[in-house]
Specification:
9 strands; 51% helix; TIM Barrel; homodimer; alpha/beta; seven-stranded parallel beta sheet; 16 helices; 329 residues
Chain lengths: 329, 329
Protein backbone atom coordinates (compact mmCIF):
# COMPACT_ATOMS: atom_id res chain seq x y z
CA UNK A 1 0.00 0.00 0.00
CA UNK A 2 1.23 3.48 -0.83
CA UNK A 3 2.36 5.60 2.10
CA UNK A 4 3.93 2.41 3.50
CA UNK A 5 7.06 4.47 4.04
CA UNK A 6 5.31 7.24 5.93
CA UNK A 7 5.91 5.61 9.31
CA UNK A 8 9.63 4.97 8.70
CA UNK A 9 12.30 7.06 10.43
CA UNK A 10 14.46 6.83 7.28
CA UNK A 11 11.54 8.34 5.34
CA UNK A 12 11.25 11.25 7.71
CA UNK A 13 15.01 11.74 7.53
CA UNK A 14 15.00 11.69 3.70
CA UNK A 15 12.03 14.01 3.39
CA UNK A 16 13.36 16.42 6.05
CA UNK A 17 11.71 19.80 5.59
CA UNK A 18 10.94 19.76 1.85
CA UNK A 19 7.43 19.47 0.47
CA UNK A 20 6.17 16.22 -0.99
CA UNK A 21 6.13 17.80 -4.45
CA UNK A 22 9.80 18.78 -4.06
CA UNK A 23 10.61 15.19 -3.11
CA UNK A 24 8.71 13.85 -6.14
CA UNK A 25 10.66 16.23 -8.42
CA UNK A 26 13.98 14.78 -7.24
CA UNK A 27 14.33 11.35 -8.92
CA UNK A 28 17.14 10.10 -6.67
CA UNK A 29 15.16 11.04 -3.55
CA UNK A 30 11.82 9.74 -4.89
CA UNK A 31 13.48 6.45 -5.83
CA UNK A 32 15.11 6.17 -2.41
CA UNK A 33 11.75 6.78 -0.66
CA UNK A 34 10.10 4.18 -2.93
CA UNK A 35 12.80 1.65 -2.00
CA UNK A 36 12.71 2.19 1.76
CA UNK A 37 9.58 0.14 2.54
CA UNK A 38 10.66 -2.56 0.08
CA UNK A 39 13.97 -2.95 1.95
CA UNK A 40 12.29 -2.89 5.35
CA UNK A 41 9.34 -5.12 4.69
CA UNK A 42 10.28 -7.46 1.87
CA UNK A 43 6.99 -6.83 0.09
CA UNK A 44 6.34 -8.43 -3.30
CA UNK A 45 6.04 -5.17 -5.22
CA UNK A 46 7.03 -1.53 -4.89
CA UNK A 47 4.68 1.37 -5.43
CA UNK A 48 6.07 4.55 -6.91
CA UNK A 49 6.46 7.35 -4.37
CA UNK A 50 4.39 10.17 -5.77
CA UNK A 51 1.26 12.20 -5.10
CA UNK A 52 -2.04 12.11 -6.96
CA UNK A 53 -1.69 15.87 -7.57
CA UNK A 54 1.61 15.60 -9.48
CA UNK A 55 0.18 15.93 -13.03
CA UNK A 56 -2.00 18.87 -11.95
CA UNK A 57 0.86 20.65 -10.20
CA UNK A 58 3.13 19.96 -13.18
CA UNK A 59 0.61 21.45 -15.58
CA UNK A 60 0.54 24.70 -13.65
CA UNK A 61 -2.19 24.46 -11.02
CA UNK A 62 -0.89 26.33 -7.98
CA UNK A 63 -1.12 24.29 -4.80
CA UNK A 64 0.40 23.40 -1.46
CA UNK A 65 0.36 19.91 -0.10
CA UNK A 66 0.04 20.41 3.63
CA UNK A 67 1.34 17.60 5.84
CA UNK A 68 -1.44 15.83 7.72
CA UNK A 69 -4.07 17.69 5.71
CA UNK A 70 -3.61 17.20 1.98
CA UNK A 71 -3.63 19.37 -1.15
CA UNK A 72 -4.75 22.99 -0.83
CA UNK A 73 -5.54 24.57 -4.20
CA UNK A 74 -4.86 28.30 -4.42
CA UNK A 75 -7.67 29.06 -6.87
CA UNK A 76 -10.26 26.29 -6.87
CA UNK A 77 -12.01 25.17 -10.05
CA UNK A 78 -15.44 26.75 -10.18
CA UNK A 79 -16.44 27.59 -13.75
CA UNK A 80 -15.91 27.11 -17.48
CA UNK A 81 -13.07 29.64 -17.43
CA UNK A 82 -11.09 27.40 -15.10
CA UNK A 83 -10.88 24.73 -17.80
CA UNK A 84 -8.38 26.92 -19.64
CA UNK A 85 -6.12 26.98 -16.58
CA UNK A 86 -5.87 23.19 -16.71
CA UNK A 87 -3.85 23.06 -19.90
CA UNK A 88 -2.67 19.70 -21.16
CA UNK A 89 -0.16 17.47 -19.49
CA UNK A 90 2.91 16.23 -21.36
CA UNK A 91 4.75 13.90 -19.01
CA UNK A 92 8.03 14.12 -20.98
CA UNK A 93 8.28 17.90 -20.72
CA UNK A 94 6.06 18.82 -17.77
CA UNK A 95 7.18 16.12 -15.33
CA UNK A 96 10.21 14.29 -16.75
CA UNK A 97 11.32 13.45 -13.21
CA UNK A 98 8.56 10.85 -12.87
CA UNK A 99 9.80 8.65 -15.72
CA UNK A 100 13.35 9.19 -14.52
CA UNK A 101 12.41 7.94 -11.05
CA UNK A 102 10.71 4.92 -12.59
CA UNK A 103 13.85 4.12 -14.61
CA UNK A 104 16.10 4.31 -11.55
CA UNK A 105 13.71 2.03 -9.67
CA UNK A 106 13.37 -0.55 -12.41
CA UNK A 107 17.14 -0.89 -12.54
CA UNK A 108 17.42 -1.25 -8.75
CA UNK A 109 14.35 -3.29 -7.79
CA UNK A 110 14.13 -7.07 -7.78
CA UNK A 111 10.32 -6.87 -7.44
CA UNK A 112 7.83 -5.27 -9.87
CA UNK A 113 7.16 -1.54 -9.68
CA UNK A 114 3.54 -0.35 -9.57
CA UNK A 115 2.90 2.99 -11.24
CA UNK A 116 0.53 5.39 -9.55
CA UNK A 117 -2.07 8.07 -10.24
CA UNK A 118 -5.25 9.56 -8.85
CA UNK A 119 -8.55 8.93 -10.62
CA UNK A 120 -10.49 11.75 -12.30
CA UNK A 121 -13.24 12.00 -9.64
CA UNK A 122 -10.86 12.31 -6.70
CA UNK A 123 -8.67 14.81 -8.56
CA UNK A 124 -11.73 16.85 -9.51
CA UNK A 125 -12.88 16.86 -5.89
CA UNK A 126 -9.62 18.45 -4.71
CA UNK A 127 -9.67 20.95 -7.56
CA UNK A 128 -13.24 22.01 -6.87
CA UNK A 129 -13.29 21.90 -3.07
CA UNK A 130 -9.87 23.55 -2.92
CA UNK A 131 -8.79 20.96 -0.35
CA UNK A 132 -10.00 17.92 1.55
CA UNK A 133 -13.73 17.71 2.25
CA UNK A 134 -16.17 15.60 4.22
CA UNK A 135 -19.35 16.42 2.30
CA UNK A 136 -17.94 17.03 -1.21
CA UNK A 137 -20.75 19.55 -1.48
CA UNK A 138 -19.11 21.85 -4.04
CA UNK A 139 -18.00 18.90 -6.16
CA UNK A 140 -21.44 17.33 -6.21
CA UNK A 141 -23.11 20.67 -6.85
CA UNK A 142 -20.96 21.38 -9.90
CA UNK A 143 -21.40 17.78 -11.07
CA UNK A 144 -25.19 17.99 -10.91
CA UNK A 145 -25.77 21.60 -11.90
CA UNK A 146 -23.34 21.76 -14.82
CA UNK A 147 -22.97 18.19 -16.08
CA UNK A 148 -21.40 19.40 -19.34
CA UNK A 149 -18.62 21.32 -17.60
CA UNK A 150 -18.21 18.40 -15.18
CA UNK A 151 -17.84 15.95 -18.05
CA UNK A 152 -15.28 18.21 -19.75
CA UNK A 153 -13.31 18.50 -16.53
CA UNK A 154 -13.33 14.76 -15.90
CA UNK A 155 -12.39 14.05 -19.49
CA UNK A 156 -9.44 16.44 -19.27
CA UNK A 157 -8.35 14.87 -16.01
CA UNK A 158 -8.69 11.41 -17.57
CA UNK A 159 -6.34 12.50 -20.37
CA UNK A 160 -3.78 13.76 -17.84
CA UNK A 161 -3.98 10.62 -15.72
CA UNK A 162 -3.75 8.38 -18.75
CA UNK A 163 -0.74 10.26 -20.12
CA UNK A 164 0.97 10.02 -16.74
CA UNK A 165 0.34 6.28 -16.37
CA UNK A 166 1.33 5.48 -19.95
CA UNK A 167 4.63 7.26 -19.48
CA UNK A 168 5.22 5.39 -16.20
CA UNK A 169 4.61 2.06 -17.95
CA UNK A 170 6.79 3.08 -20.88
CA UNK A 171 9.56 3.83 -18.39
CA UNK A 172 9.20 0.35 -16.92
CA UNK A 173 6.34 0.17 -14.40
CA UNK A 174 4.94 -3.38 -14.44
CA UNK A 175 1.45 -2.53 -13.19
CA UNK A 176 -0.55 0.59 -12.37
CA UNK A 177 -2.72 1.56 -9.46
CA UNK A 178 -5.38 4.24 -9.82
CA UNK A 179 -6.63 5.76 -6.59
CA UNK A 180 -10.20 7.00 -6.54
CA UNK A 181 -9.92 7.50 -2.81
CA UNK A 182 -13.09 9.54 -2.24
CA UNK A 183 -15.44 8.13 -4.88
CA UNK A 184 -17.22 6.15 -2.15
CA UNK A 185 -19.13 9.35 -1.37
CA UNK A 186 -21.27 8.69 -4.47
CA UNK A 187 -24.19 6.34 -5.00
CA UNK A 188 -23.88 3.75 -7.74
CA UNK A 189 -26.34 5.75 -9.83
CA UNK A 190 -24.22 8.90 -9.59
CA UNK A 191 -21.03 6.93 -10.20
CA UNK A 192 -22.46 5.56 -13.41
CA UNK A 193 -23.83 8.92 -14.53
CA UNK A 194 -20.90 11.14 -13.66
CA UNK A 195 -17.70 9.14 -13.16
CA UNK A 196 -17.63 5.81 -14.95
CA UNK A 197 -16.89 7.21 -18.42
CA UNK A 198 -13.76 9.07 -17.30
CA UNK A 199 -12.41 6.16 -15.25
CA UNK A 200 -13.16 3.89 -18.20
CA UNK A 201 -11.16 6.19 -20.48
CA UNK A 202 -8.13 5.90 -18.21
CA UNK A 203 -8.36 2.16 -17.63
CA UNK A 204 -9.16 1.08 -21.18
CA UNK A 205 -6.60 3.57 -22.48
CA UNK A 206 -3.97 1.38 -20.81
CA UNK A 207 -5.26 -1.89 -22.23
CA UNK A 208 -2.78 -2.14 -25.11
CA UNK A 209 0.13 -1.86 -22.67
CA UNK A 210 -0.67 -5.25 -21.16
CA UNK A 211 -0.05 -4.32 -17.52
CA UNK A 212 -2.43 -5.18 -14.66
CA UNK A 213 -4.63 -2.24 -13.73
CA UNK A 214 -5.51 -1.93 -10.03
CA UNK A 215 -8.38 0.39 -9.13
CA UNK A 216 -8.87 1.43 -5.52
CA UNK A 217 -11.20 3.51 -3.39
CA UNK A 218 -12.55 3.44 0.17
CA UNK A 219 -16.17 2.98 1.21
CA UNK A 220 -16.86 1.61 -2.25
CA UNK A 221 -18.84 -1.53 -1.31
CA UNK A 222 -21.70 -0.52 -3.59
CA UNK A 223 -19.44 0.60 -6.44
CA UNK A 224 -17.10 -2.37 -6.78
CA UNK A 225 -18.91 -3.91 -9.73
CA UNK A 226 -18.91 -0.62 -11.62
CA UNK A 227 -15.25 0.02 -10.79
CA UNK A 228 -14.46 -3.40 -12.27
CA UNK A 229 -16.59 -2.59 -15.33
CA UNK A 230 -14.62 0.63 -15.75
CA UNK A 231 -11.76 -1.62 -16.86
CA UNK A 232 -9.90 -2.76 -13.75
CA UNK A 233 -8.13 -6.11 -13.58
CA UNK A 234 -7.80 -5.84 -9.81
CA UNK A 235 -10.17 -3.97 -7.52
CA UNK A 236 -8.79 -2.70 -4.23
CA UNK A 237 -11.24 -2.75 -1.32
CA UNK A 238 -11.22 -1.39 2.19
CA UNK A 239 -11.98 -3.45 5.33
CA UNK A 240 -15.74 -2.78 5.37
CA UNK A 241 -16.60 -5.97 3.52
CA UNK A 242 -14.99 -9.40 3.72
CA UNK A 243 -12.60 -9.96 0.82
CA UNK A 244 -14.53 -13.01 -0.43
CA UNK A 245 -17.72 -10.93 -0.54
CA UNK A 246 -15.81 -8.23 -2.47
CA UNK A 247 -14.64 -10.89 -4.93
CA UNK A 248 -18.28 -11.86 -5.60
CA UNK A 249 -19.00 -8.26 -6.55
CA UNK A 250 -16.26 -8.12 -9.22
CA UNK A 251 -16.75 -11.24 -11.32
CA UNK A 252 -13.65 -12.30 -13.22
CA UNK A 253 -11.40 -9.79 -11.46
CA UNK A 254 -8.86 -10.14 -8.70
CA UNK A 255 -9.23 -8.30 -5.39
CA UNK A 256 -6.67 -6.47 -3.30
CA UNK A 257 -6.93 -5.81 0.43
CA UNK A 258 -8.24 -5.56 3.01
CA UNK A 259 -6.75 -5.30 6.49
CA UNK A 260 -7.99 -2.21 8.36
CA UNK A 261 -4.86 -0.01 8.76
CA UNK A 262 -6.07 0.78 12.30
CA UNK A 263 -5.51 -2.90 13.15
CA UNK A 264 -1.76 -2.32 12.79
CA UNK A 265 -1.78 -0.16 15.93
CA UNK A 266 -2.89 -3.05 18.16
CA UNK A 267 -0.49 -5.47 19.92
CA UNK A 268 0.95 -8.18 17.66
CA UNK A 269 -1.27 -11.14 18.70
CA UNK A 270 -4.34 -9.13 17.72
CA UNK A 271 -2.76 -7.99 14.46
CA UNK A 272 -1.84 -11.60 13.65
CA UNK A 273 -5.36 -12.78 14.36
CA UNK A 274 -6.85 -10.07 12.11
CA UNK A 275 -4.36 -10.85 9.31
CA UNK A 276 -5.35 -14.53 9.55
CA UNK A 277 -9.04 -13.57 9.28
CA UNK A 278 -8.36 -11.79 5.97
CA UNK A 279 -6.38 -14.80 4.73
CA UNK A 280 -9.15 -17.17 5.85
CA UNK A 281 -11.75 -15.07 4.02
CA UNK A 282 -9.55 -15.17 0.92
CA UNK A 283 -8.85 -18.91 1.15
CA UNK A 284 -9.48 -20.60 -2.19
CA UNK A 285 -10.14 -17.28 -3.97
CA UNK A 286 -8.63 -17.11 -7.43
CA UNK A 287 -6.82 -13.79 -7.39
CA UNK A 288 -6.21 -12.16 -4.03
CA UNK A 289 -3.42 -9.68 -3.31
CA UNK A 290 -2.99 -9.19 0.42
CA UNK A 291 -2.82 -5.52 1.35
CA UNK A 292 -4.13 -2.93 3.74
CA UNK A 293 -7.57 -1.52 3.03
CA UNK A 294 -6.23 2.07 2.99
CA UNK A 295 -2.92 3.94 3.51
CA UNK A 296 -0.61 3.16 6.42
CA UNK A 297 -1.36 5.40 9.41
CA UNK A 298 1.68 7.56 10.23
CA UNK A 299 1.77 6.35 13.86
CA UNK A 300 2.20 2.69 12.78
CA UNK A 301 5.18 0.77 14.21
CA UNK A 302 7.32 -0.37 11.24
CA UNK A 303 8.12 -3.57 13.15
CA UNK A 304 4.46 -4.59 13.02
CA UNK A 305 4.32 -4.08 9.25
CA UNK A 306 7.41 -6.27 8.82
CA UNK A 307 5.78 -8.99 10.92
CA UNK A 308 2.59 -8.77 8.85
CA UNK A 309 4.52 -9.26 5.62
CA UNK A 310 6.40 -12.22 7.14
CA UNK A 311 3.17 -13.79 8.39
CA UNK A 312 1.42 -13.43 5.02
CA UNK A 313 4.41 -14.97 3.25
CA UNK A 314 4.58 -17.83 5.76
CA UNK A 315 0.86 -18.61 5.52
CA UNK A 316 1.08 -18.41 1.74
CA UNK A 317 3.92 -20.96 1.73
CA UNK A 318 2.01 -23.25 4.11
CA UNK A 319 -1.03 -23.08 1.83
CA UNK A 320 1.07 -23.84 -1.24
CA UNK A 321 2.65 -26.85 0.49
CA UNK A 322 -0.70 -28.17 1.59
CA UNK A 323 -2.03 -27.76 -1.93
CA UNK A 324 0.92 -29.67 -3.42
CA UNK A 325 0.48 -32.37 -0.74
CA UNK A 326 -3.19 -32.65 -1.65
CA UNK A 327 -2.50 -32.72 -5.37
CA UNK A 328 0.36 -35.16 -4.96
CA UNK A 329 3.72 -34.98 -6.75
CA UNK B 1 -33.35 15.42 9.88
CA UNK B 2 -31.62 16.92 12.89
CA UNK B 3 -29.62 20.08 12.28
CA UNK B 4 -32.44 21.13 9.94
CA UNK B 5 -32.36 24.45 11.75
CA UNK B 6 -28.66 25.00 11.29
CA UNK B 7 -29.09 26.87 8.05
CA UNK B 8 -31.80 29.20 9.39
CA UNK B 9 -31.07 32.86 10.15
CA UNK B 10 -33.47 32.69 13.11
CA UNK B 11 -31.40 29.79 14.45
CA UNK B 12 -28.18 31.74 14.21
CA UNK B 13 -29.89 34.69 15.88
CA UNK B 14 -31.23 32.53 18.73
CA UNK B 15 -27.95 30.74 19.31
CA UNK B 16 -25.91 33.95 19.08
CA UNK B 17 -22.56 33.44 20.80
CA UNK B 18 -23.45 30.75 23.33
CA UNK B 19 -22.24 27.16 23.04
CA UNK B 20 -24.57 24.42 21.89
CA UNK B 21 -24.50 22.88 25.38
CA UNK B 22 -25.60 26.23 26.86
CA UNK B 23 -28.48 26.32 24.39
CA UNK B 24 -29.51 22.76 25.27
CA UNK B 25 -29.49 23.68 28.98
CA UNK B 26 -32.01 26.48 28.39
CA UNK B 27 -35.40 24.78 27.83
CA UNK B 28 -37.12 27.84 26.37
CA UNK B 29 -34.28 28.35 23.89
CA UNK B 30 -33.92 24.63 23.04
CA UNK B 31 -37.68 24.41 22.44
CA UNK B 32 -37.61 27.52 20.25
CA UNK B 33 -34.75 26.10 18.16
CA UNK B 34 -36.61 22.78 17.83
CA UNK B 35 -39.70 24.64 16.61
CA UNK B 36 -37.95 26.86 14.06
CA UNK B 37 -37.59 24.27 11.25
CA UNK B 38 -41.07 22.92 11.94
CA UNK B 39 -42.53 26.40 11.41
CA UNK B 40 -40.42 27.05 8.33
CA UNK B 41 -40.78 23.74 6.58
CA UNK B 42 -44.05 22.18 7.68
CA UNK B 43 -42.37 18.83 8.28
CA UNK B 44 -44.38 15.94 9.71
CA UNK B 45 -42.35 15.59 12.90
CA UNK B 46 -40.00 17.61 15.04
CA UNK B 47 -36.67 16.36 16.32
CA UNK B 48 -35.47 17.54 19.69
CA UNK B 49 -32.69 20.12 19.50
CA UNK B 50 -29.87 18.55 21.45
CA UNK B 51 -26.39 17.13 21.06
CA UNK B 52 -25.27 13.52 21.32
CA UNK B 53 -22.77 14.54 24.01
CA UNK B 54 -25.43 15.93 26.40
CA UNK B 55 -25.59 12.92 28.77
CA UNK B 56 -21.79 12.72 28.91
CA UNK B 57 -21.38 16.43 29.54
CA UNK B 58 -24.14 16.31 32.16
CA UNK B 59 -22.44 13.45 33.97
CA UNK B 60 -19.25 15.45 34.36
CA UNK B 61 -17.06 14.76 31.32
CA UNK B 62 -15.30 18.04 30.52
CA UNK B 63 -15.68 19.05 26.88
CA UNK B 64 -16.07 21.86 24.40
CA UNK B 65 -18.27 21.55 21.37
CA UNK B 66 -16.46 23.57 18.74
CA UNK B 67 -18.57 24.99 15.92
CA UNK B 68 -17.78 23.37 12.58
CA UNK B 69 -15.60 20.79 14.27
CA UNK B 70 -17.48 18.86 16.94
CA UNK B 71 -16.88 17.73 20.52
CA UNK B 72 -13.38 18.12 21.95
CA UNK B 73 -12.86 16.08 25.13
CA UNK B 74 -10.44 17.58 27.63
CA UNK B 75 -9.15 14.26 28.97
CA UNK B 76 -9.89 11.45 26.53
CA UNK B 77 -10.86 7.97 27.70
CA UNK B 78 -7.82 5.74 27.53
CA UNK B 79 -7.81 3.19 30.38
CA UNK B 80 -9.73 1.34 33.08
CA UNK B 81 -9.34 4.32 35.45
CA UNK B 82 -11.34 6.48 33.08
CA UNK B 83 -14.42 4.33 33.67
CA UNK B 84 -14.71 5.85 37.15
CA UNK B 85 -14.88 9.34 35.62
CA UNK B 86 -17.96 8.32 33.64
CA UNK B 87 -20.24 8.02 36.66
CA UNK B 88 -23.88 7.26 36.09
CA UNK B 89 -26.40 9.48 34.40
CA UNK B 90 -29.64 10.40 36.14
CA UNK B 91 -31.65 12.46 33.67
CA UNK B 92 -33.93 13.94 36.37
CA UNK B 93 -31.09 15.41 38.40
CA UNK B 94 -28.16 15.64 35.94
CA UNK B 95 -30.02 17.08 32.95
CA UNK B 96 -33.55 18.06 34.02
CA UNK B 97 -33.61 20.68 31.25
CA UNK B 98 -34.00 17.97 28.58
CA UNK B 99 -37.32 16.65 29.90
CA UNK B 100 -38.42 20.22 30.49
CA UNK B 101 -37.71 21.09 26.85
CA UNK B 102 -39.63 18.01 25.73
CA UNK B 103 -42.62 19.04 27.85
CA UNK B 104 -42.67 22.56 26.41
CA UNK B 105 -42.50 21.13 22.91
CA UNK B 106 -45.22 18.54 23.38
CA UNK B 107 -47.57 21.29 24.54
CA UNK B 108 -46.73 23.53 21.57
CA UNK B 109 -46.31 21.10 18.69
CA UNK B 110 -49.07 19.82 16.45
CA UNK B 111 -46.74 17.11 15.05
CA UNK B 112 -44.98 14.32 16.94
CA UNK B 113 -41.68 15.01 18.69
CA UNK B 114 -38.77 12.63 18.08
CA UNK B 115 -36.40 12.20 21.02
CA UNK B 116 -32.72 12.04 20.30
CA UNK B 117 -29.48 10.44 21.48
CA UNK B 118 -26.11 9.21 20.21
CA UNK B 119 -25.42 5.49 20.09
CA UNK B 120 -22.76 3.88 22.30
CA UNK B 121 -20.17 3.35 19.53
CA UNK B 122 -20.24 6.93 18.28
CA UNK B 123 -20.13 8.32 21.83
CA UNK B 124 -17.21 6.02 22.68
CA UNK B 125 -15.36 7.18 19.57
CA UNK B 126 -15.52 10.83 20.68
CA UNK B 127 -14.53 9.93 24.23
CA UNK B 128 -11.53 7.88 23.12
CA UNK B 129 -10.32 9.97 20.16
CA UNK B 130 -10.87 13.16 22.13
CA UNK B 131 -12.58 14.68 19.10
CA UNK B 132 -13.62 13.93 15.56
CA UNK B 133 -11.52 11.40 13.64
CA UNK B 134 -11.14 10.01 10.15
CA UNK B 135 -9.42 6.74 10.99
CA UNK B 136 -10.91 6.01 14.45
CA UNK B 137 -7.52 4.44 15.13
CA UNK B 138 -7.53 4.93 18.91
CA UNK B 139 -11.11 3.71 19.21
CA UNK B 140 -10.45 0.57 17.20
CA UNK B 141 -7.20 -0.09 19.01
CA UNK B 142 -8.84 0.05 22.43
CA UNK B 143 -11.77 -2.02 21.13
CA UNK B 144 -9.48 -4.77 19.86
CA UNK B 145 -6.73 -4.71 22.45
CA UNK B 146 -8.90 -4.45 25.56
CA UNK B 147 -12.27 -5.94 24.60
CA UNK B 148 -13.29 -6.22 28.27
CA UNK B 149 -12.75 -2.53 28.99
CA UNK B 150 -14.40 -1.70 25.65
CA UNK B 151 -17.45 -3.78 26.55
CA UNK B 152 -17.68 -2.11 29.98
CA UNK B 153 -17.44 1.32 28.37
CA UNK B 154 -20.10 0.55 25.76
CA UNK B 155 -22.36 -0.97 28.39
CA UNK B 156 -22.05 2.14 30.57
CA UNK B 157 -22.76 4.35 27.59
CA UNK B 158 -25.77 2.19 26.68
CA UNK B 159 -27.15 2.74 30.19
CA UNK B 160 -26.73 6.50 29.87
CA UNK B 161 -28.32 6.63 26.43
CA UNK B 162 -31.19 4.41 27.51
CA UNK B 163 -31.85 6.52 30.62
CA UNK B 164 -31.81 9.67 28.50
CA UNK B 165 -34.22 8.30 25.90
CA UNK B 166 -36.59 6.79 28.47
CA UNK B 167 -36.85 10.13 30.20
CA UNK B 168 -37.51 11.88 26.89
CA UNK B 169 -40.32 9.44 26.11
CA UNK B 170 -41.73 9.77 29.64
CA UNK B 171 -41.81 13.53 29.09
CA UNK B 172 -43.78 13.06 25.90
CA UNK B 173 -41.52 12.21 22.94
CA UNK B 174 -43.51 10.07 20.49
CA UNK B 175 -40.53 8.32 18.87
CA UNK B 176 -36.78 8.17 19.35
CA UNK B 177 -33.86 8.44 16.99
CA UNK B 178 -30.48 6.99 17.90
CA UNK B 179 -27.54 8.31 15.90
CA UNK B 180 -24.63 5.96 15.38
CA UNK B 181 -23.14 8.43 12.95
CA UNK B 182 -19.65 6.92 12.62
CA UNK B 183 -20.35 3.20 13.01
CA UNK B 184 -19.98 2.79 9.24
CA UNK B 185 -16.22 2.72 9.83
CA UNK B 186 -16.61 -0.87 11.06
CA UNK B 187 -16.99 -4.13 9.16
CA UNK B 188 -20.07 -6.20 9.85
CA UNK B 189 -17.90 -8.69 11.74
CA UNK B 190 -16.56 -5.98 14.05
CA UNK B 191 -20.01 -4.46 14.46
CA UNK B 192 -21.37 -7.79 15.64
CA UNK B 193 -18.41 -8.48 17.92
CA UNK B 194 -18.02 -5.07 19.50
CA UNK B 195 -21.12 -2.92 19.06
CA UNK B 196 -24.32 -4.87 18.54
CA UNK B 197 -24.81 -5.85 22.20
CA UNK B 198 -24.70 -2.26 23.45
CA UNK B 199 -26.99 -0.92 20.73
CA UNK B 200 -29.32 -3.84 21.40
CA UNK B 201 -29.41 -2.91 25.08
CA UNK B 202 -30.53 0.62 24.23
CA UNK B 203 -33.08 -0.34 21.60
CA UNK B 204 -34.67 -3.29 23.40
CA UNK B 205 -34.60 -1.31 26.65
CA UNK B 206 -37.14 1.00 25.02
CA UNK B 207 -39.43 -1.76 23.80
CA UNK B 208 -41.94 -1.54 26.67
CA UNK B 209 -42.50 2.15 25.95
CA UNK B 210 -44.16 1.39 22.64
CA UNK B 211 -42.55 4.20 20.61
CA UNK B 212 -40.95 3.72 17.18
CA UNK B 213 -37.17 3.43 17.41
CA UNK B 214 -35.23 4.93 14.51
CA UNK B 215 -31.58 3.93 14.19
CA UNK B 216 -29.29 5.91 11.90
CA UNK B 217 -25.71 5.94 10.69
CA UNK B 218 -23.82 6.88 7.54
CA UNK B 219 -21.85 4.57 5.27
CA UNK B 220 -23.69 1.66 6.87
CA UNK B 221 -24.71 -0.26 3.73
CA UNK B 222 -23.13 -3.45 5.04
CA UNK B 223 -24.47 -2.99 8.58
CA UNK B 224 -28.14 -2.26 7.93
CA UNK B 225 -29.34 -5.80 8.68
CA UNK B 226 -27.45 -5.88 11.98
CA UNK B 227 -28.67 -2.40 12.92
CA UNK B 228 -32.22 -3.64 12.37
CA UNK B 229 -31.48 -6.78 14.42
CA UNK B 230 -30.22 -4.54 17.22
CA UNK B 231 -33.87 -3.65 17.74
CA UNK B 232 -34.71 -0.80 15.37
CA UNK B 233 -38.21 -0.32 13.94
CA UNK B 234 -36.90 2.14 11.36
CA UNK B 235 -33.40 2.17 9.91
CA UNK B 236 -32.07 5.48 8.62
CA UNK B 237 -29.80 5.22 5.58
CA UNK B 238 -27.58 7.61 3.71
CA UNK B 239 -27.67 8.21 -0.05
CA UNK B 240 -25.11 5.56 -0.98
CA UNK B 241 -27.71 2.88 -1.68
CA UNK B 242 -31.17 3.22 -3.24
CA UNK B 243 -33.86 3.25 -0.57
CA UNK B 244 -35.57 0.14 -2.00
CA UNK B 245 -32.27 -1.75 -1.81
CA UNK B 246 -31.91 -0.58 1.80
CA UNK B 247 -35.40 -1.86 2.54
CA UNK B 248 -34.41 -5.33 1.28
CA UNK B 249 -31.56 -5.35 3.79
CA UNK B 250 -33.84 -4.70 6.80
CA UNK B 251 -36.67 -7.21 6.44
CA UNK B 252 -39.81 -6.21 8.30
CA UNK B 253 -38.52 -2.74 9.15
CA UNK B 254 -39.25 0.68 7.74
CA UNK B 255 -36.53 2.82 6.16
CA UNK B 256 -35.81 6.52 6.48
CA UNK B 257 -33.90 8.61 3.97
CA UNK B 258 -32.14 9.14 1.74
CA UNK B 259 -31.57 12.34 -0.24
CA UNK B 260 -27.89 13.36 -0.30
CA UNK B 261 -27.77 16.65 1.67
CA UNK B 262 -25.31 17.96 -0.93
CA UNK B 263 -28.16 17.78 -3.47
CA UNK B 264 -29.87 20.63 -1.62
CA UNK B 265 -27.16 23.04 -2.77
CA UNK B 266 -28.03 22.58 -6.46
CA UNK B 267 -30.60 24.70 -8.36
CA UNK B 268 -34.22 23.73 -7.71
CA UNK B 269 -34.94 21.73 -10.92
CA UNK B 270 -32.04 19.39 -10.05
CA UNK B 271 -33.13 19.11 -6.44
CA UNK B 272 -36.67 18.28 -7.57
CA UNK B 273 -35.41 15.63 -9.94
CA UNK B 274 -33.27 14.02 -7.20
CA UNK B 275 -36.18 14.11 -4.72
CA UNK B 276 -38.38 12.40 -7.31
CA UNK B 277 -35.73 9.69 -7.79
CA UNK B 278 -35.85 8.87 -4.07
CA UNK B 279 -39.65 8.81 -4.19
CA UNK B 280 -39.58 6.60 -7.30
CA UNK B 281 -37.17 4.19 -5.60
CA UNK B 282 -39.49 4.10 -2.60
CA UNK B 283 -42.66 3.64 -4.64
CA UNK B 284 -44.73 0.78 -3.30
CA UNK B 285 -42.45 0.24 -0.29
CA UNK B 286 -44.30 -0.51 2.91
CA UNK B 287 -42.72 1.91 5.35
CA UNK B 288 -40.68 4.76 3.96
CA UNK B 289 -40.05 8.05 5.76
CA UNK B 290 -38.64 10.64 3.38
CA UNK B 291 -35.62 12.39 4.81
CA UNK B 292 -32.12 13.50 4.04
CA UNK B 293 -29.38 10.88 4.23
CA UNK B 294 -27.38 12.96 6.73
CA UNK B 295 -27.54 16.33 8.50
CA UNK B 296 -28.43 19.53 6.67
CA UNK B 297 -25.29 21.31 5.43
CA UNK B 298 -25.00 24.77 7.05
CA UNK B 299 -24.77 26.52 3.66
CA UNK B 300 -28.18 25.15 2.55
CA UNK B 301 -30.79 27.68 1.38
CA UNK B 302 -33.82 27.31 3.69
CA UNK B 303 -36.08 28.05 0.71
CA UNK B 304 -34.92 24.86 -1.01
CA UNK B 305 -35.72 22.77 2.07
CA UNK B 306 -39.22 24.26 2.18
CA UNK B 307 -39.72 23.38 -1.48
CA UNK B 308 -38.52 19.82 -0.86
CA UNK B 309 -41.05 19.32 1.93
CA UNK B 310 -43.82 20.74 -0.25
CA UNK B 311 -42.85 18.51 -3.17
CA UNK B 312 -42.74 15.36 -1.02
CA UNK B 313 -46.16 16.20 0.43
CA UNK B 314 -47.59 16.91 -3.01
CA UNK B 315 -46.24 13.67 -4.54
CA UNK B 316 -47.48 11.76 -1.50
CA UNK B 317 -50.99 13.16 -2.01
CA UNK B 318 -50.88 12.37 -5.74
CA UNK B 319 -49.87 8.79 -4.95
CA UNK B 320 -52.64 8.42 -2.40
CA UNK B 321 -55.23 9.71 -4.90
CA UNK B 322 -53.98 7.37 -7.60
CA UNK B 323 -54.13 4.47 -5.18
CA UNK B 324 -57.70 5.29 -4.22
CA UNK B 325 -58.58 5.66 -7.93
CA UNK B 326 -57.06 2.25 -8.62
CA UNK B 327 -58.78 0.62 -5.67
CA UNK B 328 -62.08 2.28 -6.49
CA UNK B 329 -64.39 3.98 -4.00
Amino acid sequence: MRQAGRSLPEYRASRSSGSILQAVRDPALAAEITLQPVRRYGVDAAILFSDIMVPLAASGIEMDIVAGKGPIIQTPFRSERDLARLGTFHPETDAPYVAETVKILVSELSVPLIGFAGAPFTLASYLIEGGPSRSFALTKTLMRSDPKLWASLLDRLADMVLASLRSQVEAGAAAVQIFDSWVGTLSLRDYKTYVLAASHKVLTGLQDMGVPRIHFGIGTGELLGAMAEAGADVVGVDWRIPIDEARLRVPGRAVQGNLDPAVCLAPWPIVASEVRKVLADAKGLAGHIFNLGHGVLPETDPGILAEIVALVHEEGRADAEQDSFRTGP
